[in-house]
Amino acid sequence: MAEKVCPVWVGYLLASPIRKLFQNSQKILGPYVENGMKVLDIGCAMGFFSLPLARMVGSKGKVICVDVQEKMIRSLEKRSRKAGLSNKIETRTCHHDSLDLDDLKEEIDFAFASAVVHEVPDASNFFSEIYKTMKLNGKFLVIEPKGHVSEKHFEITVSAAEQKGFKILERPRTGRSHAVLLGKENSSLLF
Asked: Disulfide-capable partner of 160 in 82, 123, 151, 179 (CB 3.0 to 4.6 Å)?
């Protein structure tokens, strides 16, 4: 799915506990994730957000973690086993041109993509695939780093999501990042 992907060695930095000082997963995701939800973590890397999401969805929930890099997925699987969360996490390796989520049609309550969209070669297809997985009234939080993505390019990203049927619900503050919470409010759009 990615045009230029984050190098695997950067994945170790992104999974570092030091990152928690700058990005608090509970503060960022807590307002949107509830016990029992089915959550999609797109571009999960080594699971910085995946493991906290697995705790948030509780015993009846599930986090489906998707990444284009097999090494990132394998590291996440190892980390989830060590944390005792592997029963709540499903991992998938996707392709460069598709997330391969056709089996999840209208099953996802909440989707999350942090520092992902700017790596995707076809944002329109990306948002179309995610939209199809979302339940009616499902939410999708997109976060892009200001260091990689200008305000102008982020607005182009938001526009691409709106063209695929997503509605802007809010613009949460995430510090050093652009963020938008999108919602699926109309299930009758055609692609």
From this structure: 123
Domains identified in the chain and CATH numbers: 24-178 (3.40.50.150)
Confirm if 187 and 136 have CB atoms less than 8 A apart.
Answer: yes
Closest CA to 182 of 41, 172, 173: 172
| Strand bridging mode 177-184 / 134-145 | antiparallel
d(CA 9, CA 182): 31
By DSSP bridging, strand 166-170 and strand 177-184 are: antiparallel
**What's the CA gap between 133 and 44, in Å, rounded?**
17
| Token pair listed for 78 | 């190892």
Q: What is the pLDDT of residues 113-163, one digit of tens each?
A: 998 998 898 999 999 999 999 999 999 999 999 988 999 999 999 999 999
**Gyration radius of the chain over CA positions:** 15
Q: 63 and 41 in contact (C-beta within 8 Å)?
A: yes
Instruction: Please write the tens of the pLDDT for every residue from 64-121.
Output: 999 998 998 999 999 999 999 999 999 999 988 899 999 999 999 999 999 899 889 8
Q: Which amino acid is at 64?
A: I
